[in-house]
Amino acid sequence: MPLTDLPLSARPREKLLAQGAKALSDAELLAIFLRTGVPGMNAIELAEHLLNINSTLHDLFNASEQEFCAQKGLGAAKYVQLQAVLELSRRYMLEQCKREALFNSPQAVYDYLTIQLRGLQQEVFMVLYLDSQNQLIKDEVLFYGTINAASVYPREVVKAALRNNAAALILAHNHPSGVAEPSQADKLITTKLQQALALIDINVLDHIIVGGENCVSFAERGLI
After folding, report:
1. pTM: predicted TM-score of the whole model, two decimal places
2. Which NCBIfam families does the entry mention (predicted)?
3. Cα–Cα distance between 218 and 212 in angstroms, integer?
């Protein structure tokens, strides 16, 4: 059934305008992004089909260009459009982080780091440099590892913190396995970094692990 044959209250665009974006299902939001369907499927049906074969929005949005474009109703133009939307989301979250005192707004940190790190196939170690008001100066990926581990060198973290004139840091890394629970190695490197940075009066406020849809905060767990 064409979307134009549906009642106004069932059409994604009209429903969004009337009730807000949060009232829409994943398929309805994706249908707005797709704009049109394909022969035999309207935009909502196509969106439902794409979600069924990809399992989650995460899988769809993190597909490679070749994998994405090979799917029904998608192509290079949609891939470019999606990448632009995702990058705008990242930049929006960065602006939010720069405006807020991050240690007082953990949800903003979680949201930003999730956008940055979720779905990466390689483990990376990121540092958020904060000023004396706990506002973001800069974020930087310092180390890249294999899919299983990243080698983190305290000396390099100390040098980077001094270079960016940081008063405090938030550490972050991802677990490509999707399991956000900290390992013993994660706890050990956190302790080493705390000790090294304490010598130059720089506080480690938190260490956040992103795994799949979840984040684990060392500060909330009492590990820092």
Report:
1. 0.68
2. PRK00024.1, radc
3. 17
